[in-house]
Amino acid sequence: MTTDAAFRAELRSWLAEHPPPTVTVAGTAEEAAVLRDWQRTLHAGRWMGIHWPVEYGGRGASMTQVAIYHQELARAGAPAVLGRAGVSLVGPTLMTHGTEEQRARWMHRILGADDIWCQLFSEPDAGSDLASLTTRAERRGDVWVVTGQKVWSSYATWATWGICLARTDPAAPPHRGISMLAVRMDAPGVEVRPLRQITGEHEFNEVFLDGVEVPVADVIGPEHGGWQVANTTLANERGASFVWKEQQAYGVAMERLLAACAERGLTTDARVRQRLAAAWTDVEIFRWHNARTLARIERGDDIGPESSLVKLFWAGMSQRFTEAATDLVGADTLLDPTDAHAGADGRWVAGLLAARANSIMGGTSEIQKNIVGERILGLPREPRP
Ligand SMILES: Cc1cc2nc3c(=O)[nH]c(=O)nc-3n(C[C@H](O)[C@H](O)[C@H](O)COP(=O)(O)OP(=O)(O)OC[C@H]3O[C@@H](n4cnc5c(N)ncnc54)[C@H](O)[C@@H]3O)c2cc1C
């Protein structure tokens, strides 16, 4: 048996002994607790952050193994873990820009769900143009004092820490006067207000910061150099984390969609076959593109702006796929996902509604096209006001 086959067999038998819970999203405190426990179970089996170095609690797994990992979790119907921002965004950012002391303090706690992190970047008037953010931090002795408002902060309700971008040098040009601060979400002056979204969940939140004190030891990366640090976070959000997770999830979803259509005797209809073929082609293009990207990451290449291609294609694919699934499976998709008879069919509509956000989160599709045009194709930059 090859190393990768042995790895798959080990994970598969571990999953058989530790069946995942059925929660899909942390809508309530009870569901969040279930997801936290699931992450702890994974961590106890050394199945969290497997690509992280062993010293930080990972297995130093290869990219191929990471792909196998997400494939097996998707096949077992495992939900996303509660601490996903910590594992896929904060950990990699700390590995590149954090101090040894910060890594020792936070990395293990991220994997074990002892700390849940959220991302405090977007503001009411700074999303696509993130460098125009106005949350400010003033240095007073050994602390930075942060005041401002963030919005769309996913999972802030459950978070114990947030990576927050704040303007620390108001005299510097926009990209040069920003720092990344680790903010304790229970610090005096932090207020989290949940926002309810189309799916009925409240993944999003507004976060108000009023004179919040952050010790200077909790600045991640250089003071005033937070823009480069944030770019590492965003490249992970747009690139690697999509590559690993989503390709497996859609591969498994495609198999389920084919089975659902076959069960209903739909696959002899030429129009159904066209939709299925188009969905399958999208999923395969994504898989092959990701295989190439994973090989490059494995070689140590920085995928840089090409992470935008992954994000752009994924956003469109996820929307086309969930539209096709709800059209084809039809009325059964309206089953309440918690109904015992609903099975996978009851989750297609939730997927359809959630996918609307995919062309906005992590940078909109228009912004990804700008990046591809300017930084990959070398087209002239769009005029800035
Ligand atoms: C599911 C989800 C989760 C999120 N989670 C987080 C989170 O955890 N933390 C966080 O900080 N943020 C989060 N966000 C916010 C997200 O990063 C922003 O919504 C996104 O960057 C867009 O910013 P905006 O909403 O301010 O839209 P705007 O920037 O105001 O854009 C409005 C419209 O104008 C277009 N536009 C803007 N500028 C240009 C341009 N230069 N060229 C062409 N078109 C342009 C955009 O494409 C868009 O269609 C999340 C968003 C979603 C949907």
Notes on the structure:
46% of the residues lie in helices and 13% in strands. With 385 residues, it is α+β, with helices and mostly antiparallel strands. It has 3 domains: 3-82, no CATH class; 117-224, Butyryl-CoA Dehydrogenase, subunit A, domain 2 (Beta Barrel), CATH 2.40.110; 239-376, Up-down Bundle (Butyryl-CoA Dehydrogenase, subunit A, domain 3), CATH 1.20.140. A 4-stranded mixed sheet has the order 1-4-5-8. Strand 2 (136-140) and strand 3 form a beta hairpin. Helix 4 packs across helix 6, helix 8 (270-298) runs antiparallel to helix 9 (307-329) and helix 9 packs antiparallel against helix 11. It is globular and about 70 Å long. The model has no long low-confidence stretch (mean pLDDT 90). The protein binds flavin-adenine dinucleotide. Residues 118-122, 127-128, 152-154, 357, 360-361, 363-364, 366-367, 370 line the site of flavin-adenine dinucleotide.
Distance between the termini: 60 Å
Q: What would CATH call the architecture of the largest domain?
A: Up-down Bundle
- Which range does the strand content fall in? 5-15%
CATH topology of the largest domain: Butyryl-CoA Dehydrogenase, subunit A, domain 3
Across the major sheet, the strand order is 1-4-5-8
Largest sheet: 4 strands, mixed
Order of helices and strands: HHHHHEEEEEEEEHHHHHH
CATH level 1 name of the largest domain: Mainly Alpha
Number of domains: 3
Low-confidence spans:
none
Rg over C-alpha atoms, rounded to the nearest angstrom: 21 Å
**Mean pLDDT figure:** 90
Number of DSSP helical runs: 11
**Which kinds of small molecule does this entry bind, naming each only once?**
flavin-adenine dinucleotide
Helix content: 40-55%
What would you call the structural class? alpha+beta
The CATH H-level superfamily of the largest domain is Butyryl-CoA Dehydrogenase, subunit A, domain 3
Number of strands: 8
* C-alpha geometry: globular
